[in-house]
């Protein structure tokens, strides 16, 4: 029981600085990890569900937080931003590319790679406080 409480407090501390999207991603990742862990650990499904849930929540929450940060930096610096996970076994790469402006918001295309293989593309709208200064031609 002590390990369970310590583990839950640890996950809470890890996710304490995250955004709403990271929390939602962590919940989905935790649920999927719990299901897989319970199925894989035939000896003790509760242990497998706990371990799978913690790992799924932390990994998914981290990836969502990094992609959110990349999109915001992409708009702030007006250039593509790339984050790489060098320590990951799969060599995860997240690339955010600025798109068109829609009022005070900019559409950012976020691409997720595993190694050199594109695994997911999603668009996110990032809004700024001040309207951007658009330069027009002559």
Described by its quaternary structure, the protein is: single chain
Instruction: Evaluate the radius of gyration.
Output: 19 Å
**How many distinct folded domains?**
1
Low-confidence stretches: none
Determine the mean pLDDT: 79
Helix percentage range: 40-55%
Overall geometric form: elongated
Give me the count of strands: 4
The sequence of SSEs as H and E is HHHEEEE
The class by helix and strand makeup works out as: alpha+beta
Percentage of β-strand residues: 25-35%
The biggest sheet amounts to: 4 strands, antiparallel
Strand order, sheet with most strands: 1-2-3-4
Count of helices?
A: 3
How many angstroms separate the termini?
71 Å
Could you name the key traits of this structure?
single chain; 138 residues; elongated
Describe, in plain words, how this protein is organized in 3D.
- The chain is an alpha+beta fold and 138 residues long.
- It has one domain.
- Helices cover 49% and strands 26% of the residues.
- The chain contains three helices and four strands.
- The protein has helices at residues 2-14, 20-40, 45-77; strands at residues 81-84, 92-102, 105-114, 117-127.
- The protein has a four-stranded antiparallel beta sheet, with helices on one face.
- β2 and β3 form a beta hairpin.
- α1 (2-14) runs parallel beside α3 (45-77) and α2 runs antiparallel to α3.
- It is elongated, with a radius of gyration of 19 Å.
- The model has no long low-confidence stretch (mean pLDDT 79).
